[in-house]
Amino acid sequence: MKKYFEKIVAGILTCSGFVTSITIVLIVLFLFTEAFGLFRSKVIEDGYVLALNKGTAVSKLNSAQIKGVFDEEITNWKQLGGKDLPIKVFRLEDITRYYTEAELGDAYEHAGAKICELVEKTPGIIAFVPAQFIVEGSNIHLIKDNTISLTDVLAGAEWFPTATPAPQFGFLPLITGTLWVSLFAILIALPFGLSVSIYMSEVAAPRTRNILKPIIELLSGIPSVVYGFFGLIVIVPFIQKLFDLPVGETGLAGSVVLAIMALPTIITVTEDAMRNCPRAMREASLALGASQWQTIYKVVIPYSISGITSGVVLGIGRAIGETMAVLMVTGNAAVIPTTILEPLRTIPATIAAELGEAPAGGAHYQALFLLGVVLFFITLIINFSVEAISSKRK
Amino acid sequence: MDNLVIKNSISGSKAKRRSQLIAFGLFRLLSLCVVLILFAILGFIIYKGIGVISWDFITTAPEDGMTGGGIWPAIVGTFYLMIGSALFAFPIGIMSGIYMNEYAPKGKLVRFIRVMTNNLSGIPSIVFGLFGMALFVNYLGFGDSILAGSLTLGLLCLPLVIRTTEEALKAIPDGLREGSRALGATKLQTIWHVVLPMGMPNIITGLILALGRVSGETAPILFTCAAYFLPQLPHSMFDQCMALPYHLYVIATSGTDMEAQLPLAYGTALVLIVIILAVNLLANALRKYFEKKVKTN
Prior knowledge:
- The complex is a heterodimer.
- By secondary structure, chain A is mainly α.
- Chain A folds into 2 domains: 48-144, Periplasmic binding protein-like II (D-Maltodextrin-Binding Protein, domain 2); 172-393, MetI-like (MetI-like fold), CATH 1.10.3720.
- Helices cover 61% and strands 5% of the residues of chain A.
- Chain A contains 17 helices and 6 strands.
- A 4-stranded mixed β-sheet of chain A has the order 2-3-1-4, covered by helices on one side.
- In chain A, a hairpin with a 7-residue loop joins β5 and β6.
- Chain A is elongated and about 100 Å long.
- The model of chain A has no long low-confidence stretch (mean pLDDT 86).
- Chain B has a single domain (55-296), classed as MetI-like fold.
- Chain B has helices at residues 2-49, 55-59, 72-103, 108-122, 125-139, 146-170, 174-182, 187-216, 244-253, 258-296, and strands at 62-63, 68-69.
- In chain B, β1 and β2 form a beta hairpin.
- In chain B, α5 (125-139) packs across α6 (146-170).
- The longest helix of chain B has 48 residues, at 2-49.
- The chains are: A mainly alpha, B mainly alpha.
């Protein structure tokens, strides 16, 4: 009886031992199933088609081109590889400009035929209309509606998920925004982080260290919304005044806030690594006549370089994944940034800001999950590289 | 000739000393900066928020579209979420830690689990939010609820619980286990009566810190639980709830009347900070207390 009890408990413990692995598998599973629906959804909104006049000699358009056409940035079919014809954009609501209500019928029952007629006789027209309005056998050209492709997403330079007729899901502005903010954050945090960890492990008296350590822990315990709030109230106006900008909510504000938030990670890991440097090595260096500072930068730092690298990489990981603080201070403009003093938008902030409004199961919703997948893999790569760096040391 | 060598070495050591002074001075200065940053943040929020805090602010609900009243429902919600995630994550996390230190064969398996745990702890909180929404809210059909939010937050703090348990148990010398086994106790009895009681102080410290972490997280509850405003307190675990960090986010970034909302935001931030401070102080005090106890024994 007792033996069975032991066995059962051991079994339960074994199961719980694998709970983190199971969670990771589940995260991958659920994120992927939601995200990859995106590649099955069409470029053009569901139930709609793009109809062209036969004379344009264009049969394929990708989502960026469609958006260009409807924003009237592209005005000639020549730019899209067709004939030299000006583009005429037609949306359903424009129909009253061409036909009277009487012609269309009381319940718009003739609308389909009229639209087809219009597209047939107008050279250079592109019409964005519901699929049900297209009369079979009419002499018009329908754009082949591709599904959204991986290159549309990864190389797309525009994030505009609510655009019609073709929502833009280009990740490029979000990925570059994330990298800019995180890299600047690390550049700001690095001198501070290294100084504090060297000071704590090598220079400070044990008593000072005992005061500093809880302070660093406290710094890591403060919730990210509080950092974001502080950034919004103090750092954003300060940056606006300092650089004389129209808005203070910029990448730089995000970097400063993230730098403060990444500090505890960098400090704890690098300090640990430096304290692991054997006493004998330090003493040998001092005995050879080196000063304490020479010992630090010629012995301790080279010895613990892999630990220091892990700390920095983990700090970058923390910065990349941070959501709320960044959401509150970076201004969230989804454009590819040219300077750090512009509003920009990161991957986590995009998810947090838009998931609430995206209808479940739609392309926008799936695109946000795909962003989650990207984020997941970035952090996974970071974790594995830290693992590789620190196992090299042994 | 000899004098020259001595002179050179003296001037060399002078330069050496000077560069050390400069370097150490720089380290001191930058470390001081970091401490000052922390105190600036804390000081600013305490200074601005202290005037807002009152008995009414703590115990009443928000009024007039978030421009007046207090934060009582948010405090209650955060409290529920802390309890819920603790009920889920603490038993599983502690069991997992016990398995890793006491049962799992040393070597590749333990290393694999540890890598997975590290990976889980590195995953951004917003990804937990996405996952919680996909699994708990939609797939399992809990809807936006305290249950879904607590489970998501529980998964988030699981690695922390596992790691502290494992570290705490690792610090217990093997001699004690062997002694217990030699007296005829089974493995389970040894763990229950010897290992766990000795590891408990450190485990509890870790659990308290995990609670602190849970209380401040916003991103995971954004789509699983948090409500902008609720006229009444939640009745069951399938209700939505308000939460302090989300409340702070909402009144700091959106709303109709910023002037009126700002003091409330300061007050909410202060309450959050006080919770974190209390959690950290409690954990530190416990650590010190138990350390002393072990020494005197």
